[in-house]
Design goal:
about 500 residues, 3-stranded mixed beta sheet, 10-stranded mixed beta sheet, alpha/beta
């Protein structure tokens, strides 16, 4: 009850002389006192929390050790609004209100905002953004680890493409790894090890015949034939079809090559794995791992079969276990690729559950590595047109309708058409409201398969051009601050590891 209302009622009842009235007055006064004490306790709690947080940050020492290892975590499409919604969803999945929750990486001591535009695009794609992070050079939309003026060239020994972190690390004897819940040949993981004028060249069948005649290599081929150092040590993800001939079940290759067999011949002491159990066993004894767990992209975390596909956390832990055997250190890129895909479909539930699993993978890494010698960076390649709006009360179900409790009952906040609306929505995509909004129940919007409403009809929701966050902990993580260009991430890694010195 409102404190002012309690006191006013008590004052009115004081005029009554009956014993019952006096008891009521005492009861109401006690209630008012209890509310006042509760409110003061809440004030003290927030005040103390704020003081403690600042004191903790003030005492964080700068770590200027050389980074032996670097792990770059990228959640594809995880903009600020996705982080906020995932934070709340994560807390609510444990029965909390959610807003006060923190994801694993949100407690990292250093943070920057990252400008994501490509050299030719105000709103970027994953290829150009991942390439900026891996090469230190911004490039065009759809381009894989090539400079902007090289986007008509294809991979070959005579082309001087900017070196990726993995290439530089391998040349220095470090171990390297790439993990993704998308196809391992998809844009973000491809930028780790490949150079291509277009992200679409995942198999040779995707490369135009005239380009193949010039010796252009597809992305899957470049992974298997990665020749710097002793090659990529760990590659785990989806995309099996890009490594097999069209004659095989679902294969996409026209050259008749079996790239998995070629990899096995190249690394006779390595292990090729196709499910979670095989990965668990191979991690214990092998220093080279190739894991292809699905024909194309791996399943969303909410739909994943634990016996068939490992989780992002399991793949991350396996990669760290294997790469850590290199005494000189390692570079590992881990991508949660399907946050992006769920957003494109305007399915907020799967975007948030995949981002939640991403947070668990980061936590697993933090608990495994030595942060005195390991730099962990957590970011996104770009954001999405994903919004959190309305004025829902604290603790309102993040996937539900905007609502507020008034006098104990939860009331929806309706739009101008008299219908309730969800807290989460998208600027464009399928399920548009241009022809009027459908009548749906809260049970329907809380269904795992519900597609949030959009303002502009499109077959697929689009990226957005807003800045993304970069979180950092470990050696030289204090270099992560302010508003930075996306290609600076490469140079932070380079400085921390001393790669080009």
């Amino acid at each position: 009850m409102n404190k002012l209302l309690i006191l006013a009622t008590a004052a009115t009842l004081t005029a009554c002389t009956s014993v019952d009235s006096q008891v009521a007055v005492n009861s109401l006064q006690n209630s008012a006192n209890a509310v006042a004490v509760s409110q003061q306790a809440e004030v003290n709690q927030w005040y103390s929390q704020g003081q403690a947080a600042v004191a903790q940050r003030a005492n964080i020492p700068l770590n200027t050790n050389k980074a032996k290892n670097v792990i770059l975590f990228i959640a594809d499409g995880m903009g600020i609004s996705t982080i906020t919604a995932t934070r709340i969803y994560d807390g609510q999945s444990r029965g909390e209100t959610g807003e006060e929750n923190s994801l694993s990486f949100e407690i990292f001591p250093n943070l920057a905002l990252v400008k994501t535009y490509n050299t030719d695009a105000q709103v970027p794609d994953s290829a150009g953004t991942a390439s900026a992070m891996n090469t230190g050079v911004k490039t065009g939309i759809g381009v894989i680890s090539q400079a902007a003026d090289q986007d008509n060239d294809c991979y070959g020994p005579s082309i001087d493409f900017p070196k990726t972190i993995a290439e530089i690390a391998e040349a220095k004897g470090l171990a390297t790894g790439v993990v993704s819940t998308a196809s391992i040949t998809h844009a973000t993981p491809a930028a780790v090890y490949a150079h291509s004028p277009t992200r679409d060249w995942e198999a040779d069948a995707n490369v135009p015949a005239d380009k193949r005649a010039l010796g252009c290599q597809d992305i899957a081929q470049q992974l298997i034939q990665f020749s710097t150092g002793d090659g990529i040590d760990v590659a785990l993800g989806g995309g099996k079809r890009y490594f097999y001939t069209i004659d095989d079940d679902g294969g996409k290759r026209e050259d008749g090559r079996d790239l998995v067999e070629e990899w096995q011949q190249k690394y006779t002491d390595g292990a090729f794995v196709t499910n979670a159990e095989e990965l668990s066993q191979a991690t214990k004894t092998n220093d080279k791992l190739l894991g292809l767990f699905s024909s194309k992209h791996m399943a969303f975390e909410a739909d994943r079969s634990a016996t068939q596909e490992p989780s992002l956390t399991e793949m991350t832990s396996s990669a760290i276990d294997v790469l850590s055997r290199n005494k000189d250190g390692y570079f590992l890129m881990v991508e949660s690729g399907r946050v992006d895909h769920a957003h494109h479909a305007t399915n907020a539930y799967r975007a948030l559950t995949d981002a939640q699993e991403f947070s668990r993978a980061v936590q697993a890494a933090v608990e495994t590595v030595n942060l005195d010698e390991t730099l962990i960076l957590v970011t996104a390649d770009h954001s999405h047109v994903f919004t959190i709006a309305g004025y829902p009360e604290r603790g309102n179900p993040i996937l539900g309708f905007v609502a507020w409790s008034d006098g104990g009952s939860r009331e929806y906040t309706n739009a101008a058409d008299g219908k309730p609306y969800t807290t989460l929505g998208y600027h464009n995509g399928p399920n548009a409201t241009t022809d009027g909004r459908k009548e749906v129940t809260e049970g329907e919007v809380l269904n795992d398969n519900y597609l949030q409403e959009t303002a502009i009809e499109m077959s697929s929701e689009t990226h957005s051009g807003e800045d993304v966050a970069l979180f950092a902990v470990g050696p030289w993580s204090h270099l992560v601050n302010g508003v930075i260009e996306q290609n600076e991430i490469f140079h932070i890694i380079d400085h921390a590891m001393g790669l080009t010195k």
